[in-house]
Amino acid sequence: MNDNIKTPDNTNDGKNKKDNPDGLIPPKNRINNGEDKAKTSNNKEDEKQQKVNNNMKHRIFFTNRRIQLGLMIINIFMLLFFIGFGYWQGTLTRRAVEKSDSSFSYTKYADSINGVRDSKSFAYTKYSDSVNRSYNERSFNWTKRSDSLNLDNAKRTNAFNAKITKIQTRAYIAVTEITFSTFRINKSILTKVLMENMGKTPAFKVWITNAIKLGVSEINMSDFEIINQTKNVGDSINMNAGSEYSYEALSTQRGAVSIIDSVNIKTGKKAFYCLGIIKYIDIFGDKRFTRYCFKYDPGTGIFRSYGSYNNAN
User: Fold this and answer.
1) Quick one: which of 210, 209, 205, 208 has its CA closest to 236?
2) Of the candidates 49, 68, 102, which is a domain's last residue?
3) Cβ(215)–Cβ(174) below 8 Å
4) Domain-located, residue 42
5) Opening angle at CA 54, ends 52 and 56, nearest 5
6) Are 97 and 206 in a shared domain?
7) For the whole model, what pTM was predicted?
8) 213 occurs within a structural domain
9) Which among 22, 273, 293, 295 is least surrounded, fewest beta carbons within 10 Å?
10) From residue 101, how far is each of 98, 110, 123, 255 by CA, in Å?
11) Which of 197, 205, 209, 201 is nearest to 173 (CA)?
12) Planar angle of CA 235, 238, 244, nearest 5 degrees
């Protein structure tokens, strides 16, 4: 280097610029500033690289931790599996040894009782026969009881079917219409009662007992009891299924109808009832009856079914 070149003082930049206008030799502080910037830039890159390296180390560390934890869990499960497998094998081995010991003991015991085997076998056979006999007796009793229950069920079923058959095929006699046959002044009142067999089979020995009530306020069961005690008059009839029969009912009030009674019946001041009992025998030989009660309606001039007295058995 040239010994005549002197380095300007760093303490006065303005003076250095004036003294060295061409800038051939930079001031010392400028050189230091460039070096500091370079160092700072290098430090930042080093810090970034350090952070990257640290992040990579953390990732590698945690990845290794996870792998170690997974391997540890697998080792634990394998250890538990081998412990369980060993216990299972030990149990099988122990049972096999126990069976072997039991078989050996049984063989030894069997060899020791060969002398009395026949007698015990005979006793066992006898006991077995006794057990089988007892089982057969119980089985027979159970079969007998089952047959009895089945027989009872069959009887009940047959009785129910017979009852249904009777209900579906028996005769049913009902009163369908009542009209005046004779209702004139100075004449006895006669009503015409029309009845029909609505069942599917004939009705035999049909008897009719009836009554006509005039002027009473109400009908009760005592009126039907009186009618029921009335003796049957005339011959009975037979009614086929679907056939009709009419008969005339005479008023219990004997004698001619007065003008006042006629007016009172027509205007409704006096109630007029026609009631009775029809008795018959169905095709099964059962006694049947039909009660009927009708009341005259002066507004329409017809007889209407009255109260709960129209029923049958």
Assistant:
1) 205
2) 102
3) no
4) yes
5) 70
6) no
7) 0.49
8) yes
9) 22
10) 5, 14, 28, 119
11) 197
12) 110
- Per the rule left: phi > 0, alpha: psi between -120 and 50, beta: everything else, 288 is beta
- Could you tell me the CA-to-CA distances from 249 to 172, 173, 179, 209 in Å, in that order? 21, 17, 10, 9
Phi, psi dihedral angles at 179 (to 5 degrees): -135, 165
Whether residue 207 is found in the same domain as residue 267: yes
Q: DSSP states of 213-238 as a string?
A: EES-S---HHHHHHHHTSPP-S--EE
Contacts with 62 (C-beta within 8 Å, 6 or more apart), sequence order: none
Tally of structural domains, the chain: 3
Residue 225 lies in a domain: yes
183: CB partners within 8 A, 6+ apart: 189, 190, 257, 262, 265
Q: Tell me which H or E stretch contains 241.
A: none
**DSSP category for residue 253:** S
The radius of gyration of the chain from alpha carbons, rounded to an integer in Å, stands at: 63
| Residue 115 counted as domain residue | no
Q: What angle do CA 94, 95, 98 make, to 5 degrees?
A: 85
- Nearest to residue 219, comparing CAs of 144, 272, 148? 272
Q: What is the pLDDT along the chain (313 residues), one digit of tens a residue?
A: 444 444 445 444 554 444 555 555 555 555 556 666 666 777 778 888 888 888 888 888 888 888 989 899 998 988 999 898 888 888 888 888 888 777 777 777 767 776 666 677 777 788 888 888 888 888 888 888 888 888 888 888 988 888 888 888 899 999 999 988 777 666 667 888 999 999 999 999 998 888 878 776 678 888 888 887 776 655 688 999 999 998 887 654 444 566 777 778 878 788 888 888 999 999 999 999 999 999 988 888 889 998 788 888 8
Q: Provide the residue range defining the domain that includes 147.
A: 127-169
Beta-strand pair 272-281/237-239: unpaired
Are 288 and 249 spatial neighbours (Cβ–Cβ below 8 Å)?
A: no
Q: Cα torsion at 26, 29, 34, 37 (round to 10°)?
A: -170
